[in-house]
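Model it.
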Amino acid sequence: MNFKTIFKSLKNKTMLKRVMIVIGLLVIYRMLAHIPVPLGEPTTFQEAIKNLLEKSDFGNFLNLISGGGFTAFSILLVGISPYITASIVVQLVTKAIPRLEELSEDGESGRRKINQWTRIIAVPLAIVQSIAYIFMLYQSVIKSNIALTYTPTTMDWVLSVTAMVAGSMLLMWFGELITEQGIGNGISTIIFASIISQMPSLLSSLGSALFDTSNGTLSLFGWFNLPVNPSMFWILLGFTIALLVVIYFLVKINEAQRIITINYAKRVHGNSSYGGIKSILPFKLIAAGVIPVIFATAFLSLPALAGQLIQTNDPNNNFGTTLVKLFTAPSASNFSTYYPDGITAMWFLYPAMFFILVVAFTYFYTSIMYNTNEIADNLQKQGAFIEGIRPGATTSRYLEKTINRLNLFGSLALGLITMLPFITDYIFIVLNGRPLGLSLSGTGLLIVVTVALENLRQLNSRALMITYDEYK
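Modeled.
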């Protein structure tokens, strides 16, 4: 990555304009994240959301990708999850229906039609999610005996749902505008900005804990004292070192790929010869990215959400309580409630299910992305072959075996990344008797690292195009 080239390219007006448009859209997005839903007093619903987040891992994940819009009860509460869901559904249906797969391969016009269908599907999904969230939060407010200044009317409900759907569609539009600038995927960039936006509040809380000297100060080698909390200082130092190691590991596995050399047969046409060259066919170690994590989180969240709805209507219902306990990730916020006697076998159930689902969905999604029969057929039509491997079915079997090997290591690595919060919580429980609420979010780090590398790669490519004449 040549940062000198990137900075030099910013002298170009077109390049500077592209960067400023992306920054401007992200600033507007963050401003919209603080506009509350027009339904009653926002503080009332924010209190209900905080109570809900303590019981829902999926709610915390939604709050992560919405940049805190969930806890702020803003018009961006739904975020871009409807568009992400619609994109996943369209991808799966496209691979399942041959006619749609042909349309997706029909150049730019086919892709535009599929993108249009994705937008259309995202609208009803946003409406359903908006109604579900408001209903669940409203019921939580009522069951919690929180005082309401007035009872919302039908028009209040319609206005609130409309505002949330409009916020979701605005984010979808912002994502497409960012993508058009050619320096990163818009949806991924918005999620990246959402995660990064929560850094100041996290640093502020950590700073308050670090400089709390009520329990004494840190003495360094007996020479001088630092005005910091001794125990918190060593915890944060170890946490920072672990964070840097994890980021290094994430960069390595994100960039890891298996390169297969492709040979093109030499052809003679008249006095000219064609082919006889070599190319490469790269396969990434984790081709599915964070999609398996999203799938696994959504899959495990459904029973927990059902249990919460049952508890909302009947707090004494044991079935609802069991569902919430079984399908809620153990964390610092719910540890004392669900595990008053410390770590039990039940504590390991959710991490184990999560790990298995991440591995399974990695295999599933990668099998959809890579059709080895199609790749082998395309290579054969182009007169290309892998050295030592017969074209056709033999090549397909070789590619399938290669991808399965990559999937084995890639899925286990991805599963290990998603286990980081549970591993750090377990360490703190063993050392401290309970989690400290300071854990490595493998999912968030994976998104940040993946998006940052991809955006920098695209930005560097565009910068090289602009400054090309200077390197002639």
